[in-house]
Amino acid sequence: MADDSRKVSYGTGINLELKGKIALVTGSSSGLGMEIAKYIARAGATVAIHYHSEKLQAEQLAGEINSNGGKAAVFGGDVSNRAEVEAIFTSIDRQLGSVDILVNNAGIDGKRELCGDDNPDDWERVIAINLLGPYYCAREAVKRMKKSGHGVIINITSVHEFVPWSGYTAYSSAKAGLSMFTKTLAQEVSESGIRVVAVAPGAIKTPINKDVWGNPETYKDLLTKIAMPRMGETSDIAQAVTFLASDMASYITGTTLVVDGGMLIYPAFKHGG
């Protein structure tokens, strides 16, 4: 007699299911973080929308999600301040419950300054937000996830964890550091039911870099650095993050998923060396 225990239904689609999960997306009041929050909410998670200074935009996003059948609440604070991060997580505990998914998205690229001609305060600020911020948030998340026996931490790095970027030593150093933090933390918590992964975006079209994609000359130059003939959209990253947050990625940890349209495959060599 045939074994029917492995029968599946084809043609019905595969869903990325996050129902019952509570997700914190830092820096989700605008740009990339906002799109990530929308996608995670569409997958069924209750989303803690985090902002630093853009409270109105965060509230508008929460209103949009809640009015369309999702669940979201707003939380403010500076991720580079340990006490404020602790307060954010305590507030989420009280209002929503314990965080199951953490997306460390908040970050800045800082001023373009060459080392030696720069202001150390600017360098330290980039490191504080881009590296200490994810550490403070992950630290709070891990304490909660260990108690529940499950969780996912997703760190948003950049292709500049691999590629040097002249004038942005702080940004590149922070993203490279966040990559190693991802790997090492994944190793630490691997037996606790917690996965830690990173997503490295390439050139993504957001309001913050409109001066590049909004100028025909600079946009043309940018496309020479991308193998695929287009700039990335925020949805490209949001979809990757949602996948990694789901059980469909349950055997993925301690690595970086690069979403860059082929920036790292040296598109300048497409036509020979």
User: How many beta-strand runs?
Assistant: 7
Oligomer: single chain
Number of helices: 8
CATH architecture field: 3-Layer(aba) Sandwich
Give the terminus-to-terminus CA distance. 61 Å
In CATH terms, the superfamily is: NAD(P)-binding Rossmann-like Domain
Lateral arrangement of strands in the main beta sheet:
3-2-1-4-5-6-7
**Biggest β-sheet strands, sense, barrel:** 7 strands, parallel
Unreliable residue runs = none
Strand and helix layout:
Layout: E1 22-25, H1 31-42, E2 46-51, H2 55-67, E3 71-76, H3 82-95, E4 101-104, H4 120-148, E5 151-156, H5 169-188, E6 194-201, H6 210-213, H7 216-223, H8 234-245, E7 256-259
Parallel strand pairs: 1-2, 1-4, 2-3, 4-5, 5-6, 6-7
Helix pairs in contact: 1-8, 3-4, 4-5
Descriptive tags:
273 residues; single chain; seven-stranded parallel sheet; alpha/beta; Rossmann fold; 41% helix
In short:
This protein is α/β, with parallel strands linked by helices. The protein is built from eight helices and seven strands, in the order βαβαβαβαβαβαααβ.
